[in-house]
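Hi, does anyone understand the following?
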Amino acid sequence: MAKNWIVQGDPTSSGGRVLTGSPFTDIDGVPVARVTDQATCPQHKGAFPIIDGDATLIVDGQPVALHGSTLACGCKVLSAKQMRVFVDPGGGVGSGGGAGAGRAAAATAAGAAIAAATRFASANEPEADEAAEFDEALRFCSESGEPLAGVRYTLHFADGSTCSGIADGSGVSERICTGECTEIVRAELTPASESEACCALEGAFDQDQVEIELEGVQTNPVDVGHSVVEVRAKGHKRDLTPGEVEIAHRVFGDSVDYSTVKIHNHGYWMFFGFQDKHTAVTPNGQMYYPKPIYQDDFSLLPEDQALFIHEMAHVWQHQLGYAVRWNGLFVSSQGPAAYEYDIVPGTTLSDYNMEQQGDIISDYYMIVLLGDRVYARGSRGTPEQLQAVLSEFLLDPSSRSNLPGRRR
């Protein structure tokens, strides 16, 4: 049975959506999904990578994901957005494979298959009876330009009317068609679903809504059917305060470049809908605190210091070259168990996963340096145990051998 290639925006068996795809290979402008690309899963409350595909078809060094490919959570990705390119078990685009030169040949064959399928479809698609006289589409992005895939939107027009929809895998709205030039004055963005990401504090989930005031955005007769306006959801970010640098330096010393660390007063846009309002994440060397838990200075209160040092551990991991965002997808999928740790004689920091490391380091700061067990996150170690498990880290925090799985 032939299986369609998966593309960005395709659904999952649990009601989620494929978030990422190839930056170089697409079908009709929609990125092709590969093994390691990510999809949301409302059932398991997170974003998970695709873990299997067609090994005979390699795109950007990874097998192409197919209809029925599996996510790390166990759910499946389903083909719904394109029907043009597929793998036929009897041959077709799935007949090549191998490594080295075989991989290159497979990638070439894949690209040729897409091009041929696109040319064939374009030649056989009927043109619309009449085109809209005025239209526009909006691409919703984070402040750094990352697409807000699958976000729900409501657009408000100058005449008081509204329209709603769901952005595609590239963050692009449906085309807004009007009979005359119509100004779009505001966009409201709401995540399609919600879930816990990582580093959570206790508290109820509370879905975010982002409002963006628009200027100069309107349906127009220029480039009808093709024009797209980029709309960025902005937030506030700041440098570390002197107090924050001081307490972080007590733990990490000079192993971190504190001048490059930013603290944001909103959630991480790529986790929009998968980060509750009492959750902090640090996936890329910068900290993202939703407004309910954001502080202008995390060094003032002990409960804020405990969370801050945990997040600084992820900054430290990132700056030493550890793939925090990628590994976090696997580790945080374990839920609360990902943070639990026991200190066994002879173990070192590198024996623990990224979240356990964050809590161990935070607990060391709270219990050993501050003498405050009340606000410690894990509270599973005595001062002696924490000092022992961190002995190599404390001796040389700049050594990559302290990272998860890198024991000497």
